[in-house]
Write a structure and sequence with these properties.
alpha+beta; 10 strands; five-stranded mixed sheet; five-stranded antiparallel sheet; 29% helix; 2 domains; ATP Synthase, domain 1
Length: 137
Amino acid sequence: MSLHLEIVTPEKKIFSDTVENVYLPGADGEMGILPSHAGLVTALQPGELRYLRDGQVVTLAIGSGFAEIAHDKAVVLTDMALGESEIDEQAAEEAMQRAEEKLKTLDHDMGAEEVAYLQGIIAKQTAALRFKRKHQH
């Protein structure tokens, strides 16, 4: 049995093929998806997505988003999906530091949306850095 996996970002379709399983960073923790999984829609948090294809485990750092599971199909909609070689450690650290500095100097005019946006940048960059450091060879 197999599962069709699609990983889509706003820029492009990252992956679309048959896999044996997929593990996602769900809002309540990691979740495993196998063929014939019950249908569900769930929020994703920044973290590591991995899937097994042809006996090989493939891993990606992903941002926040959603996953829709329907029987033998999993669709992941995320704002970031990067392999280890695509992550620039220095750029990620700098983006995270800029967002943290902006949060530290919060003025009273900053709305909840801007705070959430900055927190999202920090979460994505933290996930990318953890992923990069875990998978460096």
